[in-house]
Amino acid sequence: MATLLHINVSPRGNYSISRQLGSAAVQAWKEGNPGGHVIVRDLAKTSLTFVDLDWIAGAYSPTERHNENHKKALALSDELISELVDADEIILATPMYNFAVPAALKAWVDHVVRAGKTFRYTAGGAPSRNNQS
């Protein structure tokens, strides 16, 4: 069964053009994938934290060395990564603010781009996609 991750970013609800376009794209995807599963992540309703010292310490240390602060800081990141890894396709419905993405979307990216989880460094130091989930 195909899985779609639908990410909404705009806080404008039904007034949002990006949400309307995203919903239309999801509907078209559903028509092409009967029985498919849609994971919806609304970043306007998700309390996203920003990367902080506990997040960094947890993300860059072995799991067995995590304290409760590390675990708490990485819990949302783990959830968001799980949604991303489970998805076969992604629809990202976002507005543009001041010629850039909203802070909520940047925070989401910061949570899902994690060494050893969604990518790994190569011997030369360059990142590559991590195919191990």
Keywords:
3-stranded parallel β-sheet; two-stranded antiparallel sheet; alpha/beta; 133 residues; 5 strands; globular; Rossmann fold; 17% strand
Question: How would you briefly describe this protein structure?
Answer:
This protein has helices at 17-32, 53-59, 68-86, 103-112, and strands at 3-8, 37-42, 89-93, 119-121, 127-129. It has 133 residues and is of the alpha/beta class.
Describe what this molecule looks like in 3D:
The chain has 133 residues and is of the alpha/beta class. It has one domain: Rossmann fold (3-Layer(aba) Sandwich). It contains four helices and five strands. The strands form two sheets. It has a three-stranded parallel beta sheet with strand order 2-1-3, sandwiched between helices. A hairpin with a 5-residue loop joins β4 and β5. α2 packs across α3. The longest helix is centred in the middle third of the chain and has 19 residues, at 68-86. It starts with a strand and ends with a strand. The mean pLDDT is 93.
Compile the SSE list and pairings:
Layout: E1 3-8, H1 17-32, E2 37-42, H2 53-59, H3 68-86, E3 89-93, H4 103-112, E4 119-121, E5 127-129
Parallel strand pairs: 1-2, 1-3
Antiparallel strand pairs: 4-5
Indicate the low-confidence ranges by residue numbers: none
CATH architecture: 3-Layer(aba) Sandwich
What is the terminal-to-terminal distance? 18 Å
CATH fold label: Rossmann fold
What helical percentage do the residues reach? 25-40%
